[in-house]
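User: Need the bound-state model for nicotinamide-adenine-dinucleotide:
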Amino acid sequence: MKLLVTGGAGFIGSNFILYWLKKYPQDKIINLDKLTYAGNLENLVNSEKNPNYSFVQGDICNLQLVNQLTSNIDTIVHFAAESHVDRSILDPAPFIKTNIEGTYILLESALKNKVARFHHISTDEVFGALPLDSSDKFNEDTKYDPRSPYSASKASSDHLVRAYATTYNLPTTISNCSNNFGPYQFPEKLISLAISNILEGMKVPVYGDGLYVRDWLYVEDHCEALDLILHKGKVGETYFVGGLNEDIPNKEVIRRILKMMGKDESHLQFVKDRPGHDRKYAIDWSKMKRDLGWKPRHSFDEALEKTIDWYRKNQDWWKRIKSGEYKKYYKTQYG
Ligand code: NAD
Ligand code: TYD
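Assistant: Bound-state model below.
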């Protein structure tokens, strides 16, 4: 395969590139990434000399550049996005630009250059919020109900992908996954922020009552799911990718991390809630299991241990991030 990976210097994209180059050394990957605050080429230093890998710094909103790159590949794997809900609340503009317009540009280019597959990475957040006491789960038939600028922009991009599939027969697939965690995650999301804060001797901010529920997916398990979708997935289909079979409230997630790191609960700090905070996400990933034979390889606790270990061993990586622009963001977000 010849792949154009967008957003490959970000958290999931870089994990995907490392996974793919190792498993399919004969495939070629072009990584198109703008290198926003979230893009980090350090994640890919070990691939720099690989003749089958190349990096292009650029914006997915640049049609000319995207056309040039798309003319030479057969598959687009589209990760590039503004991805953090809290930042979308502070400033929605880049979310609208990259997530909606950027996806449109990629779709136009994919159509023009007749790519064999356009795979779009999306999120379970586009389906809104479940009540805490409900045992319902999102599935492939759930109606869209996005509630934050981030999820609204991702929902728009999903709709555009489906519109291009229906109207122009573009061969697309979509995956809606739950909250990822693992190596190379920018320390602004709950688990990466919690582990790095604890390693620095800081407290972990818990929004509101801490009873909010997310589904958690280890990034390596996500990469395996994407591999199956790209090789065996059916064109036109949407696949849900999740990690858990139980509800684990945020407070409990942080408690587990504290315990694994030998710390007590005095490290929890309850802070003001996120506006419009979605109560609960839960995802039914049985279609991935039934149709493609996928299931997450790691239990939540195993994956947490691996992630903690990675952040322990790679302190330079996140300390460099935390000493830069991040400081200003942290102050704005947490005071
Ligand atoms: P990330 O924020 O870590 O990385 C995003 C990458 O996209 C960065 O490298 C950034 O430089 C690049 N980028 C941003 N704007 C760009 C532009 N205009 N042109 C080119 N590159 C640009 O994000 P992530 O956590 O790796 O998420 C990847 C994808 O997965 C996103 O589409 C996100 O919506 C989706 N997703 C993420 C999660 C999660 O838990 N992280 C969950 C569900 C879905
Ligand atoms: P986050 O990692 O931002 O992912 P998302 O909002 O996309 O689900 O947040 C996960 C959950 O953790 C969410 O309920 C908000 C909560 N949270 C905190 O309690 N404290 C924090 O500092 C952060 C970043 C998130």
